[in-house]
Amino acid sequence: MRRLTLTMLVALFLCLACAAAAFAAGDFIAVPSIDKYLTPSNMEKLKAGEVVKETVITKDAKGNDSGRGVALVMVKAPKEKVFAVITDFNSYAAWMPNTKAAKITTNQGDRIDVEFELSIIGFGVNFTVIHKVDKVAGTIPWRMDDSKPKKNIQDLVGAWVIKPMEGDQCVIAYTITADTGLSLPKFIEDWIWNKTLVKVQKAVKGRIEGK
């Protein structure tokens, strides 16, 4: 298994990209429905500007960690603006947490490939991500491009889901699934799966709403 410096797991938030070439069915996760998270109590939190999240961390027989997480936030903006901000990867270094550089390398049809350079707790993290943009469905599934050079990171997959609501508002969900291949200290698990998910969604909300 390729080694992963768990911290780079935070790479989750920046990833977005896709293209006109054909995508193999196994390249991306099945984009989940977020309706089950839109309970009355969660909707109250979302309308109040809070981030709603759910995380699950498990260990294999060797004690290595794997996990999945989803975080939701509500923004006061139509779907078109949400897509415009999320897919403006060349601007990520100006507002996305831990991002030193982001550069679109392919932009064809529904595919955008992006090279990312992150700085996370002193670690340099580099990788390329492929995202498949579907504006009609309101989804952007993504995965790391294993054919490209990378540093301090292994395979990650996930998706953005944009659900329009009444009054020109949208709920944005960010999902990630990862197998670190490492046994992680509890405080690092908490940082990756809790603090980071919230921080990323707050940054997205601020960028979209101009705050």
Short key terms for the protein model shown above:
eight-stranded antiparallel sheet; disordered N terminus; 211 residues; Alpha-D-Glucose-1,6-Bisphosphate, Chain A, domain 4
Estimated share of beta-strand residues: 35-45%
How many individual β-strands?
Answer: 8
Could you say which structural class the secondary elements and strand pairing correspond to?
alpha+beta
Tell me the span between the first and last alpha carbons: 42 Å
The largest pleated sheet is described as: 8 strands, antiparallel
Over the alpha carbons, how many angstroms does the gyration radius reach? Answer: 16 Å
**Strand adjacency order, main sheet:** 1-2-8-7-6-5-4-3
Helix content: 10-25%
Count structural domains.
1
Mean pLDDT equals 77
- In the predicted model, the low-confidence regions spanning at least 5 consecutive residues are 1-26, 180-185
